[in-house]
Amino acid sequence: MALIRALRRYPLAGLAVVALATTLILLAVGLPGAAQILATTVIGIVVLLTAWDMVKDIMAGKWGLDILAVVAMVATVLVGEYVAGLIIVLMLTGGEALEEMAAGRAGRELDALISRAPQFANREGADGQLTQIPVDEVAIGDILVVRPNETLPVDGTLLGASATIDASAMTGEPLPVTFRTGDTLASGTVNETRAFRMQATATSADSQYGSIVRLVREAVESQAPMVRLADRYAVPFTIVSLAIAAFAWFISGNPTRFAEVLVVATPCPLLIAAPVAFMGGMSRAAQIGVIIKNGGALETLARVRSAALDKTGTLTRGNPEVRRVIPGTHSADELIALAAAAEQFSLHAFAQSIGQVAAERGLTLPEVTGADETATNGVRALLADGTEVRVGKITYIEEVAGPLEPAQLAPGETFVYVSHGSDLAGIIILADELRATAAGTVARLHELGVTDIAMLTGDNAATARAIAGTVGIDEVEAGCTPQTKVEHLAAMRNRPVLMVGDGVNDAPVLAAADVGIALGARGASAASESASAVITQDDIANVAYVIEISQRTVRIALQSIWLGIAISIGLMIVAALGYLPAVVGAILQEGVDLVAILGALRALRVSHTPVPEAVETPAARQAA
Q1: Phi and psi of 447, rounded to 5°?
Q2: Distance between CA atoms of 459 and 173, rounded to whole angstroms?
Q3: What range(s) does the P-type ATPase A domain occupy (predicted)?
Q4: Prior bond to 411 cis, omega within 30?
Q5: Is it the case that residue 527 has pLDDT exceeding 70?
Q6: What is the Cα–Cα distance from 119 to 210, expressed in whole angstroms?
Q7: Widest CA span of the chain, in angstroms?
Q8: How confident is the model at residue 102 (pLDDT cuts 50, 70, 90)?
Q9: Of the listed 310, 502, 539, 593, which one is catalytic?
Q10: Which distant-in-sequence residues (6+ apart) come within 8 Å of 283 by Cβ?
Q11: What phi, psi does 315 have (nearest 5°)?
């Protein structure tokens, strides 16, 4: 059924398959006349259609393999090599079908991104009743209610006392954020806890998610069509072939000599070598967990000269965890138990991580009789014995414990201070761990010819620069929005530019880049839809691997193309001198095709240089 649907969708490719099979059957049963009529008719139809498209392309200033294909198909008919002509027809129409399939998939992926946008909103009326309305009907000033696990339909202002929002898909940051009355909320983020009320400050079209969808669409539509690798050789090869054929006709005075030369001048090495090599390279990339969506992306990856990397979830793992504990007046276990007891009443981003450590250690938490949280500072809990526990920023703890010395932090780390009464119970260090292969990947990208590497992140400048310095990135753009990421990317001079990221917030910049790679193993689906390639395994080292594989694949494709061209030109010269009859030339040309295919198949075996993992120091491994 799938084959029938494919043949219906791409009728010329289907016609070529049926015609080639039928022609071979007719020849096998001893009906060469019928076989020739059928093959010549099909070749003629394709020649006329291709010639029409070729004329339109030439008028538009585009020259490609269609010229060579038309000449080759006509030549095969003129010398009676109609089976070879049908093979050329199949390769030509099959390639066009694959290109149309790739374009159709890009459109479906954009539609999928749009379909994931919020569809409805819960509007509160003057009587307090809720009405579900299409998100497009939300007006500025409407009061909306967002239930737990619902996506915020539009941008707005929080009316409730507090709300915990998962903004990871939009900002790329893994930590839930606590908002207070009057704070600005962004569409596309997810309500993590209890229901809350908000006032719409923008319509659906003007909200952040709608803007992201629009940016993706504009970026996709602005991309110039990829020039096929073999097209660059089509015009000179065609000119050389026609020149040799015309010279052979001139010196011999025999028009048959012209056809004999063109039989061995068919563009099969060009038509076959690059696609076979590219398919081999894409298959090899898939084996290491990288899905390259089309051959154009592979070719661009091979030429990348600049790269921009997201931080959270790309250079780092995107999972905050307790890195170490610095005991004060209490032991490590007592410190964790006190912090977890207080944090269980908190909406703070680190509460889950601290509670998880307490559970893993099997600690018994002290009884809490009351707790309250101070926005942006920390949480305070009253224990059953009447003592107070505070967990939060250093300034919050200094209110009861007096002046304190800030802890020494490694790149990417942050601290939580814990007090018990007026004593500093200790400090808990948390961090979003840097990927082990991050620094090695950056170094390998430089070795592969990527001269400029930048970090584009929505995180604060201090943390961003610390991470960048650790992995060897000099250029850092912090506090970025989806729009400013696109602007920074456009300002990078050395092209093509690669972007690596994850999450919905990276969708526009992935689409705007010359080639985008999404870490799809944990990132939002919108990133995967906008990217040219998707890493299905959670390892940034695959970025370097796929560039190396792409470079070697293109090198193999070029070698195969040049080998095929060299052999074809050699055969053309022999044919021009009258030593190569048409039938023998057609057989030898198939040998040329075989050599080109075998050479291109080497791409299935391309390897890559492993990226070393960073060596952890004992201090980095230590967890109290």
Answers
A1: -65, -30
A2: 8
A3: 120-216
A4: no
A5: no
A6: 12
A7: 113
A8: very low
A9: 310
A10: 604
A11: -80, -30
